[in-house]
Design a protein that fits this description.
This protein is 2% helix and 54% strand. The protein has 607 residues and is mostly beta strands. Strands 24, 26, 28, 29, 31 and 34 form a 6-stranded mixed beta sheet that branches. Strands 30-37-39-42-45 form a 5-stranded mixed beta sheet. A hairpin with a 5-residue loop joins strand 18 and strand 19. The longest helix is centred in the last third of the chain and has 15 residues.
C-alpha cells in the first residue's frame, strides 16, 4: 500500500490538502483514517474501491498531525491488516508586513514606526527586524509564544529623526525560520520612506466628463492635492441665496444622473490637520440639456369660482434657457409665448375652464406638462324640450327633458303650478315622462336647475287636447212648456281646445242649425210646432258629445187672435238688436210661415 503524498507534507493555512491511501492485490479492501493522538481528522473521507481519500479544505492549524491509514483485506478468519502514516506540518505566513509611520509636525520631532505581521503561525518562530536604511533600529522575536492558532503580531519603535533621515527608507523584515520545513518565502520585507509633514499645496479639481456635462450624465469631480499627511477634503456648493451647502468629505464628489439644479460653483477645501494649513480650489459646473418643467401651477387653486382672478404659472429650467408656451389644449391657441411663463385670467368664466398645456423648448429638445383649471359656476343655459312638440291627446305619452350647464353639474327637479298659484315639486331628474296623459296633467311645468352656487328656472305649458266631457245641460223653465213661453237651454262642458255647440231639431224637412252664444240657446214664444227631439252637439277638433233633449209644447186654453211668432235670440245680443231681430222674424213668419216655428242662424261664437 502507499499514501500520496508520501511521508511528510507541508501546507499553509487556507490551502487545500488531499491525502490518498491506495492498495493493490485486494479486490475489496476496507479503509480507516485516524491521527496518532486520536485527535479529530479535520477533513472528509471518501472511499473508492481500492483507494481512499482524506480531504482538508481549507487546511487549518488543527490539521498539524501524523495521519495513519489502515487497510483490511479478506474475510474475518483470514483478514489481513496494513498501516501507513504521513506527517502533515502546517504554517501561516501569507503576506508582507504592514508599516505605519506616525508623521511628525516637523522633521526634528519624534516619529513612531509600527510593523504589523498578520496571520502568522507558529508565531514562536517569528523574528522581526526594523531598519533605517542599512542601520538596524530594533529586533524582536516571539520564542516564548505558545499559540496554537494564527495570530497578528506588532512591533513598535520610536526614535528622533535627524534632518538627514528625511527621505530614508524604514524597513520591516519578518522571518519565519521553521526548522526542517520546506516552504517559501520564509522572509517578507516592507519598506516606507520617512517624510516630513507639508501641504496641502498645488490643489486642483478635475471634472469628468467636463465642466459642461449633459443632463443625465454622471459627473465626477476629483480634488487632487499634495500633502503629508494626506489632507482632509471637504466639498461645498455655493447656492443661489449665497449660502454654502456641505456635500461630502471624500476627495471624489460623484453626482449620478446630473440635473440642471446641479449647476453651480463647487469648492474643494483641503486641510492638513498636522501643519494646520488649508488650500481651496473651485470649478464652475454648467449642466446642459433639454428643458425640464419645474413648476406648472394655478393660483389661487386649480378649482375656482366663476368671477375670480386666476393666474397660471409655468416655469422650466434648461441650458440654453428654454422658450415657454402656454396654451389651452381644447382650442390649441397659443396664449404666449411668455418669457415669465405666466398668464392672467381676470374674472374667469366657465369658458376658461379646461386642460392647459405648458411646452418648454430649446435646441436639445422639448418637454410638456398639463394642468386642469376647474371653474365652478351656477346653472345657466337651461332649456326644456318636449316630445312631441305639438299638443297631445289624452292617453298619449309626453317626455319633457331639461338640460342645464353648471359646475358642479346641476341637480334637476320638476314642479307643477297648482290652481292656487303655488308650485308643487313632482319629480327629481332631467327627464320627466308622463304616460297615459290625462286632462288633469295639463298646466304649467317648471324645471329648476340648482347647485351650491345658485339656481335657474324655466317653464313650459303643457297642452292636452281633450274632447268635450262633463257635459251639463239645463232647460229652463222645463222641457214641458205652454205655447207662448220662452225656453232657455244652457250647456257647459270641459274640453281643450274650447268646444263649439250647435242645436238642431230632428225630423225637420229643412235642417236648421243654431250655434250657441256662450253656451246658451233661447227659444222665444214657442208653439206646438216646436215640440220634438232636439240634438245638442258639443264638439272640437278632438271629438264631440251629443245630448238629446225632448221638448213638449202644450196648447193654451185661450188662443190669441193672432199667432205670436217664435223668436230665437242670443243671450249676448244687445237690447237694441233684440227688438229689431224680433220684428224682422215676425214680419217674415206672418208673410210666409204662418203657424210654424223658426230657428234663426246665430253668430258662430266659441265657448
Amino acid at each position: 500500500m502507499e499514501i500520496i503524498p508520501a511521508n511528510r507534507i507541508v501546507k499553509q493555512v487556507g490551502e487545500t490538502l488531499r491525502l490518498t491511501c491506495n492498495t493493490t492485490g485486494c479486490a475489496s479492501p476496507s479503509f480507516s483514517w485516524r491521527t496518532q493522538m486520536d485527535n479529530p481528522l479535520g477533513g472528509t473521507v471518501n472511499n473508492y474501491r481500492t483507494y481512499s481519500t482524506l480531504t482538508m479544505n481549507p487546511v487549518s492549524t488543527v490539521n498539524s498531525h501524523d495521519y495513519l491509514c489502515t487497510v483490511f483485506c479478506g474475510e474475518k478468519e483470514k483478514k489481513e491488516k496494513k498501516e501507513k502514516s504521513v506527517k502533515v506540518e502546517i504554517y501561516s505566513f501569507p503576506r508582507d508586513p504592514v508599516i505605519e509611520i506616525s508623521p511628525s509636525s516637523a522633521a526634528t520631532e519624534p516619529v513612531t514606526v509600527t510593523c504589523k505581521i498578520l496571520d502568522v503561525y507558529p508565531s514562536h518562530y517569528l523574528e522581526v527586524l526594523l531598519k533605517k536604511g542599512d542601520h538596524i533600529l530594533h529586533e524582536k522575536n516571539f520564542y516564548e509564544d505558545e499559540s496554537t492558532n494564527t495570530e497578528n503580531k506588532t512591533v513598535t519603535y520610536s526614535f528622533n529623526p535627524t534632518a538627514e533621515d528625511i527621505g530614508k527608507e524604514i524597513t520591516c523584515v519578518a522571518k519565519l525560520p521553521i526548522p526542517n520545513m520546506d516552504f517559501e518565502p520564509k522572509e517578507r520585507v516592507t519598506s516606507e520612506k520617512l517624510t516630513a509633514n507639508f501641504g496641502p499645496q498645488n490643489t486642483v479639481i478635475t471634472a469628468s466628463p467636463g465642466n459642461w456635462p449633459m443632463e443625465g450624465d454622471t459627473l465626477n469631480l476629483t480634488c487632487v492635492t499634495e500633502s503629508n499627511p494626506p489632507a482632509q477634503i471637504v466639498w461645498t456648493k455655493h447656492l443661489a441665496d449665497e449660502s454654502i451647502q456641505l456635500l461630502t468629505k471624500n476627495n471624489v464628489l460623484s453626482i449620478p444622473d446630473a440635473r440642471f439644479s446641479d449647476s453651480g460653483l463647487y469648492t474643494c477645501e483641503a486641510t492638513n490637520v498636522v501643519t494646520n494649513k488649508t488650500q481651496k480650489a473651485a470649478v464652475d459646473i454648467v449642466i446642459r440639456g433639454a428643458p425640464d418643467i419645474t413648476k406648472l401651477s394655478i393660483e389661487p387653486s386649480t378649482t375656482v369660482r366663476e368671477g375670480e382672478n386666476v393666474s397660471i404659472l409655468c416655469s422650466a429650467e434648461g441650458n440654453p434657457s428654454p422658450r415657454i408656451i402656454l396654451r389651452r389644449k381644447s382650442d390649441g391657441a397659443d396664449m404666449g409665448p411668455y418669457s415669465e411663463g405666466r398668464i392672467l385670467l381676470p374674472s374667469v368664466t366657465f369658458l376658461n375652464g379646461g386642460v392647459y398645456e405648458c411646452v418648454a423648448e430649446n435646441k436639445f429638445g422639448k418637454s410638456r406638462s398639463e394642468i386642469t383649471l376647474n371653474v365652478e359656476y351656477g346653472p345657466k343655459n337651461t332649456v326644456i324640450s318636449v316630445i312631441p312638440a305639438t299638443p297631445v291627446k289624452e292617453g298619449e305619452t309626453v317626455i319633457m327633458k331639461c338640460t342645464s350647464s353648471g359646475n358642479p353639474a346641476p341637480v334637476i327637479s320638476w314642479k307643477k303650478k297648482k290652481s292656487t298659484g303655488e308650485s308643487e315639486q313632482i319629480y327629481t331628474g332631467a327627464t320627466l315622462t308622463i304616460k297615459n296623459i290625462k286632462s288633469q296633467d295639463l298646466g304649467l311645468y317648471e324645471c329648476e336647475a340648482y347647485n351650491r352656487f345658485g339656481k335657474e328656472e324655466k317653464d313650459v305649458k303643457l297642452l292636452v287636447q281633450v274632447p268635450p266631457q262633463n257635459i251639463t245641460v239645463l232647460v229652463y223653465p222645463s222641457e214641458n212648456v205652454k205655447e207662448g213661453e220662452n225656453i232657455t237651454i244652457t250647456c257647459s262642458a270641459y274640453s281643450n281646445p274650447p268646444s263649439e255647440m250647435v242645436l238642431k231639431k230632428l225630423h225637420q224637412q229643412k235642417e236648421i242649425i243654431l250655434p250657441s252664444v256662450n253656451g246658451t240657446f233661447i227659444l222665444y214664444n214657442v208653439t206646438k210646432n216646436d215640440t220634438g227631439r232636439y240634438l245638442l252637439d258639443v264638439f272640437n277638433e278632438v271629438g264631440n258629445n251629443i245630448t238629446v233633449i225632448e221638448i213638449a209644447v202644450v196648447e193654451r186654453l185661450e188662443k190669441p187672435d193672432q199667432m205670436i211668432p217664435l223668436v230665437i235670440a242670443f243671450s249676448s245680443v244687445t237690447a237694441v238688436a233684440v227688438p229689431a231681430v224680433a220684428i224682422l222674424i215676425y214680419v217674415t213668419r206672418k208673410a210666409k210661415i204662418n203657424g210654424s216655428y223658426s230657428l234663426v242662424k246665430a253668430l258662430g261664437l266659441k265657448v
